[in-house]
Amino acid sequence: MSTRKLVSASFANLLIPISGLLVSPFLSRELGPEGRGVYAALTLPIVVWGWIGTYGLQDALSYHVRQGRLSSRAAARFSLVAMLPLSVLTVGALAALGFFLFPDTAQYRQFLILVVFAPLHVLSNLLIGALTGNGDIRGLNLVKVVPALVRTGVVIFACLAFDLNAYQAGLLFVASVLAGLAFGLVRLWTTPDPAAQDATPPAPGTAPAAVPTGSLIRYALACLPGVLAAVSSARLAQVIGLPLIGPRELGYYAVAVSVAEIPMVIATAARSVLLGRQGSGDPRAATQVARLAVLASVIACGLLALSAGYAVPLVFGADFAPAVIPTMILCAATVLYACMIIYTAALLAHNRPGWSSGALVIGSVVGVVALLVCAPLGAIGAAIASLAGYAATMTIAAVGVGRVPALRSVRMLTVPYGEDLGLIRDRTARIAAILRRSVVPVAAQHEKPETTGTKENAPMPASLMADVVAACRRLGPGTVGVAALIILAWLRVVPSQAVQFLTVGRPVFNSREVTGSHVGDLIGDGITLLFLLLAVGLTGHGLWRRRPPGRRWVAVALAALLAIELAGLLRGQMPGAVAAAFPLAALAIWAQRPRMEVLGVIGVLGALTASGSMLFAAIRPELALLSGADAGEKQVLLGGLLAGPFLHSNALGLALALSLAFVFYLRPPAVRWACLVLILGALVWTGARTSQLAAGAVLLAYLLLRLFRSRSWPASAVAAAGGLLVIVMPLITTDPESFSKRGQIWTALLDRWSDRPLSGWGPKIFQEPAVAAELGGQFSHGHNIMVQLLVVGGLMAIVPFALLCFVAWRRSVALATDGHPAALLFLVAFMHVSWLEASHLSATLTGYLAWLPLVAVALAAPASPPARSARPPSPSAPPAPPTESAPKPAPVEQRAFLP
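The line above is the sequence of O-antigen ligase-related domain-containing protein; the predicted structure tokens follow.
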């Protein structure tokens, strides 16, 4: 149980430095090195006094609640009453401290305003102490995490939306503690005490047990020197760093601390567990959490130190490159800090507050002296001072631990035993098993896996590889191969374009010339070649294994693509090798007949695209965001329109909207909803109104399917409305300025098509200068799928494409009736993005989100044909070919609408 508490508390505590890491790049770029240093000087004294201002009562509350001498409700009342004198001391002390820290009168006045919130930080730490003693890890997590989440969202939004200064950012920071106080008070007031649950209830009229005020004060006074010393060791360099090392060096040091303090959450979580009520009387079992925390801290600090040289300038900007060396020094100091925190927590838990305070005081003195000596070295000197202080405290505390009979030796708190490593191995194997089960598609999960008597005894890597091979065999080469085709197409479009941007920068908006790099071009060409070879291999494998039915339907899927290329040949436009990509992919899908659940890969890749684009915008906003004239008339959100690795925010919006429907193929609810939130959040940031409309139509169709269950006609009506817009809007629009000048584009292109109505002008018509003059700008597509197909392929392209969409709709209706709505929802999205856009219907791999799902849906079979056998098939409906290794029809109660 203590290990679970360690993991829970560590993950919760990890959100606090993660919050700092998320906020710090925005603040660093917004404020600059000097402003970042002023921000640290304004806020850190208040945070530090949140610890000092408890005057040891935080640890006293933990000890007395842990021993059952104080109830949770009594601890809450005591904290509220103690706040009256503590608030006076807090405000007075900080006002006096600010007089020395801020010679600038304006900054001092700003600091005095922020000091008003300092008593709330003190109260929050008192509540944390009571919750720690009660062993209420969940309540402890709420008090810590909720303010961190609120602070992250509010500060990042303010940095992107407004011009923020150091004082305004500090005000948002110190006020965020209000979000956690309510949770802590309610938790303490309502949670029953574990020690009192089995006790005899007091007789009616009996007064409640008195609060041991004297004992609390005596214990607090014994802890007070250690509290003061611990705070000075942890944060003194930042508190008094402004006059000693200057704002610029303090900014570097603050950034280094925000990175190196990440592993500290592990030791902090272990401290909370050690100070809480123990469920085991065995000292070796009770201290297992400490040994695991030290091991995890060593690994985490090593990884951070190795990556600091690359990560710090990348995340915080090139201006903060001098923070790399202090970060590496502080990573080593964090290992010593973890041991120090665990040793002092063990001393407090075994009623040795004097030893804990003495160790912390000595370490603090060493740190202060080292800081004064090393101040000329700037941020590096401050990091060395922290290392020296932690080392001194750890050494003295280790001596004290050796004098506690119950702990036997320091080794019990630091070095893992054999059973500890065995626990790690078992938990790792369990997590790996859960992950293997979660990635198996829905259809494969209903099948019973083959088991052997020797598999359980196989080594872990061999067992994992065997499971992967077995899953691939159950899915079949067709499903695995088509999934690989989708992934290769995504790799060719998204990561390859990101590499291009990082190497040569974002091209000029709407530029005809897109500069590439040799590395990016080589990677892209290699991925395209792999796509072609894999498509050929899958086609040959499927045709060699069996003679697949439905030749006329694959001919429909190929006709539109071939018509476009034929129109180009008639105009003297020679197709490249990539023009064969989608025809070969259509043949591979027809020959293999993969499971429809393979399209869930598109949903996962859509979520990766969304999260990667938002991360790209946080790290390199000048590459991932469109602003100013590039954003056009759209309202800019969060500093610009999110384009990510795409040439325009509309292109990213199209990719996200077309991926949204396939999220519903993902079986684990947590994964499904996480992907939905990521895609919708990024879609809002793009400002792509057409794609946002399509996403809204998808959600509406989903709700209609849930309401009408076995009837798909309402969702089909939503898709038909999008198709009607595709046909009607270009024909009735006469104003050239309509729909952001799309009226002019449609009129010019339809006039062009009327000259060659049968074959069109080929896919390279948009590269002709005369066409650009007629359209009023350089555009690469017709901004409507009907107009696009008519002008590039004529009637030879539009007729088979319309037939392909009709066949896909018939298949999607059958799938939706059987409880698989993703295909029909995709058609809804596809139709609603197609009446104002057409770039997603590219003949290159950038159009994979349109062609591959359309072909897969058109050639798919219903999930459970026997359930629909009572109604004879329509003569006009195409035959339903069997899917590869199709599972047996599930019982009615298992064919739920959504898993």
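Note on the example: The first helix runs from residue 2 to 52. The first strand starts at residue 625 and ends at 626.
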